[in-house]
């Protein structure tokens, strides 16, 4: 790994503890105004100072995020289908590598779809993206997207994460499962855990804690932060887990203590149920 790539990786994964809290707010690229992200600037900007990296689309970064932020950006670099499409996740490359550089992003995230009819397309495209990232010292993160019909178990996720690494991913983002340590052990590059659909705060904190105990470098979490009743308190609680070795109970206590008295944020946009499909 050359100097530029190592430098960019160190901006994502803290070299002091080898961990990262990535905030995933890219969901609109196929879900549109996802619950909790409708007013993107208003909802996301308060979370940014607590994230080690922001994972979003170039359109939302350009239109809705202040360019003065210090937080590094990872750009969603795959897409092409919507939640209404039967071939959801039949994705292709969406951002030219020159624009990734122009945006001063540290890298990209690309979904591969192992076990789905278009796995070959997404894996070959991902390999092209890795080539481009290697050329410019950018970080390529593979996201192991999972179709509804596939089981998110250690066998499947072990296959998908290992394939991602074999095809050159520098970081792999995947879902938590029983036996997650086996998934991590067989993947030679850092794994970050996607949060998945919104679940109670204690369950999300426990899942993140278990993923880290199993060897994950951290999380790239979205809905369990921005759909929380208090997203700022929740991202800070996740931070306690990741960088300060809090237990799930301690992190929940932190969340409760830091919740705003004003309570929940008014939500609008698509039904929360729609986000359960990913
Ligand atoms: C996945 O590919 C999505 O675009 C999100 O980045 C990912 O699912 C992580 O967000 P969440 O924690 O909401 O699952």
Could you characterize the architecture of this molecule?
With 278 residues, the protein is of the alpha/beta class. It has a single domain, classed as Aldolase class I (TIM Barrel, Alpha-Beta Barrel), CATH 3.20.20. The chain is 40% helix and 15% strand. The chain contains twelve helices and ten strands. An eight-stranded parallel β-barrel has the order 1-2-3-6-7-8-9-10, surrounded by six helices. Helix 6 (119-136) links the parallel strand 6 and strand 7 (139-144). Helix 9 (201-213) packs parallel to helix 11 (231-244) and helix 9 (201-213) crosses helix 12. It is globular, with a radius of gyration of 17 Å. The two termini are 33 Å apart. Ribose-5-phosphate is lined by residues 24, 26-27, 55, 111, 143, 145, 194-196, 220-224, 278.
How are the secondary structure elements laid out?
Layout lengths: L2 H10 L7 E5 L3 H4 L8 H5 L8 E4 L1 H7 L8 E4 L1 E2 L12 E2 L3 H6 L4 E6 L6 H18 L2 E6 L9 H13 L4 E5 L4 H6 L5 E4 L6 H13 L4 E4 L1 H4 L4 H14 L3 H11 L20
Helix pairs in contact: 9-11, 9-12, 11-12
The structure holds ribose-5-phosphate (R5P).
The site of ribose-5-phosphate has 16 residues, from strand 10 and helix 10.
């Amino acid at each position: 790994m050359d100097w530029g790539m190592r430098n960019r990786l160190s901006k994502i994964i803290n070299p002091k503890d080898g961990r990262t809290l990535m905030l995933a707010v890219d969901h609109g690229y196929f879900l549109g105004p996802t619950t909790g992200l409708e007013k993107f600037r208003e909802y996301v900007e308060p979370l940014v100072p607590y994230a080690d990296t922001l994972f979003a689309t170039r359109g939302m970064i350009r239109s809705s995020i202040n360019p003065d932020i210090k937080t590094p950006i990872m750009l969603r670099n795959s897409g092409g289908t919507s939640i209404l499409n039967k071939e959801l996740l039949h994705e292709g490359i969406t951002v030219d590598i020159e624009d990734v550089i122009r945006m001063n992003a540290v890298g990209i995230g690309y979904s591969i779809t192992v076990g789905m009819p278009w796995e070959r397309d997404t894996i070959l495209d991902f390999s092209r993206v890795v080539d481009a990232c290697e050329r410019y010292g950018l970080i390529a993160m593979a996201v192991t997207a999972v179709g509804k019909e596939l089981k998110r178990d250690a066998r499947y996720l072990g296959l998908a994460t290992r394939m991602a690494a074999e095809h050159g991913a520098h970081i792999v983002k995947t879902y938590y499962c029983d036996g997650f340590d086996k998934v991590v052990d067989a993947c030679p590059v850092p794994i970050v855990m996607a949060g998945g659909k919104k679940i109670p705060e204690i369950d999300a904190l426990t899942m993140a804690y278990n993923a880290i105990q199993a060897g994950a470098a951290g999380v790239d979490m979205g809905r369990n932060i921005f759909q929380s009743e208090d997203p700022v308190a929740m991202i800070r609680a996740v931070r306690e887990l990741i960088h300060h070795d809090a237990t799930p109970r301690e992190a929940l206590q932190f969340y409760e203590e830091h919740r705003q008295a004003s309570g929940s944020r008014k939500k609008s946009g698509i039904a929360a149920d729609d986000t359960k499909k990913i």
